[in-house]
Amino acid sequence: MRPVSAIVSCAMWMCVVAMIGGCRCGADRADEASALSADEASVRSADEKIDEKVGEVVRILTDMPDWSALGVSDEYAVERRQIEEAVRRIAAYDLDTIRAAEQLYRSSPPMWLGGAAKLFVLNKFIFSLPQTVRRASPHFRLFGGWMGGPISGDPYDPRDTDEMDMRWPWEADASGEWRLVGRFSGFMGPTSDSLGEFDYYRQHFGKREIPKLGGD
Which of 56, 62, 49 shows the shortest CA–CA distance to 108? Predict the structure, then answer.
C-alpha cells in the first residue's frame, strides 16, 4: 500500500496540472475571442467606411441642382456647370458605392421627379455609352418617360434618323469634355427606373474612363 503522504502529493500534483491546463485553455479561448473581436472590428470598420462613402454620394446628389427644374431656357448656365461638377465628383467612386447611394437616395425621401432627374443625368454620365444605337438594337430602350431626347419619330427632333442618342442629355464639346446641353422637356409614360438603368448600363457597357479636368 502506498503511504498517505504519497497519495496526497499525487493528488495535489494532478490538481496543479489540471489548473495549468485550465489556465491554458482559458488563455486560448481569450486569444480566440480577442482575434474574433479584432476581425469583427475590422469588418465593422470596413462597413462604416462603405457607409461613409455612400453617405458622401447621397449628400452630393442632395446638393446637386435639379436638372428637370432648369426648363428649356439658356439662363441656367451656372446650374448646369454645378451639375457637371457634381456628377464628375460622384464618378470618382466605385460603382457599388454609387449604386448603393442611388438606392438610398431613392428610398429616403420617396422618389420625386427632380430626384429621378438627378439619377438620370448621373447614369448617362458615368457609363461608357455608345453615341447612338439603331432601332433594331436591344439597347434601343428607355428606363422612364423622359421627353426631349433625339429619337427617330420624335416631333421635336428635326433629324430624320432611325437611331437614338444614348448619351442625351450629354454631349461632348470640341475638347472631348461632356457637357450637359440637353433640356428637360417633360416626362410621360413609365415610371423612371434608375436602378434598372444603372444595372443594364453596368452589365452591357461598363464604367466610362473620365479624364481629369485639364487633361492631367
Answer: 62
3-state class (DSSP) for residue 180:
strand
Alpha helices, DSSP H only, in 77-188?
Answer: 77-91, 95-107, 113-126
Residue 90 CA to its chain's centroid (Å):
8
Predicted TM-score (pTM) of the model is: 0.70
Distance of CA 83 to the CA centre of its chain: 17
Residue pair 181/167 in contact (Cβ under 8 Å)? The answer is: no
Averaged pLDDT in 10-residue chunks for the chain of 216 residues: 46 43 49 50 53 95 92 76 96 96 85 88 95 80 74 60 84 90 81 92 94 53
User: Residues near 214 by Cβ (< 8 Å), separated by ≥ 6?
Assistant: none
